[in-house]
């Protein structure tokens, strides 16, 4: 794809703007290019164009919208390798993981292209013979989203495509660390035939200004955000002034539980996938491991052995399984949490090394207690603290002892325990004998302070639709 093969072409986005944002490769520190730092006036013009474009788009048929979105899906998959390379360059994850994210992001385009045709209303049995009652589904209007750096394509498509399929327009503000992927997939949407103004990407070094503008603008009817719980609270407060619809996918503190009857080899495999994907920089990755006393030593020995085999380096290099952390602050946080845990009595069983630059060795900590800081905080790095437990009741209490409630995982062969624990875990998503559970066909989201709303599945379309009740009298 000529438009994105050469990263320098994306620097042309900065023409006629007063300032620009440098995009760095976290593995090398090199500057990849520049994107605009849009000011308030420029973003307000984008919002006005989105409002105008949405009114026409809402009048098109779901079938026409599906045809355009289907072409977008195919273009993304046709350019999977180029998109993956851009992602690895600006985000750092290994190239194989980037390819996987491109396919995952494209799956939402494919899914919602068809799901948009099923925005069904209802005919409701009337209580009076001279009336007919029905409901229809209509787009909310202009939608805006603020997306994170850890999944720079999937977080755009998972939010933008249901909005577009529903008949909304969409404005996305990607993270300053990873804007190139967002611009690239938006360019492919244009090539697919999406009308001008319907999908806009804005970038700015003033994230606070963008968030406030999105929340206060009367032209924007819906806000979607993926990021920290702290920022989510701020956006919700700001949106309350205009009673704006919001969906929030916020922090996580996922427990990974291994019961005494678990398949230990399967649990180790699932733990590796859940914890170390994207160097542990995911909101749904396992954050703390609870292992039954009777299988603790076996699990730790096998887990640590596999973790020691993981290869850290530049995601473009062959054989690399762990890339860099996104920036210096992320690495400092990881190092601080490890140091604090060791000071409180934890042992480093694997890893624990600062590898220079923004690289940190995948690490397993043992002799960890439930009350340690590393258990309470969202780590967002390649660190696995492992805690012993002795009985199911105390385990459930520990697993639920957090303000977060996004994802959780456990391994067991006992069908009675499986249902009991799955129902008892206070999380929006539960993986049973699986370490990777995200898919476009299932609703993604959390409870408690991990957010509100759902993405993916039919529920993801509902987030961008209003239900209108129509009563016809005089029959």
UniProtKB/TrEMBL annotation:
Record-stated family: Belongs to the aldehyde dehydrogenase family.
Protein name: Succinate-semialdehyde dehydrogenase (NADP(+))
An example Gene Ontology molecular-function term: succinate-semialdehyde dehydrogenase (NAD+) activity
Keyword vocabulary terms for this entry: Oxidoreductase
Active site: 249
GO biological process, one term: gamma-aminobutyric acid catabolic process
PANTHER family assigned: SUCCINATE-SEMIALDEHYDE DEHYDROGENASE, MITOCHONDRIAL
Organism field: Enterovibrio norvegicus FF-454
Domain Aldehyde dehydrogenase: 19-470
InterPro entries per UniProt: Ald_DH/histidinol_DH, Ald_DH_C, Ald_DH_CS_CYS, Ald_DH_CS_GLU, Ald_DH_N, Aldehyde_DH_dom, Aldehyde_DH_Superfamily, Succ_semiAld_DH
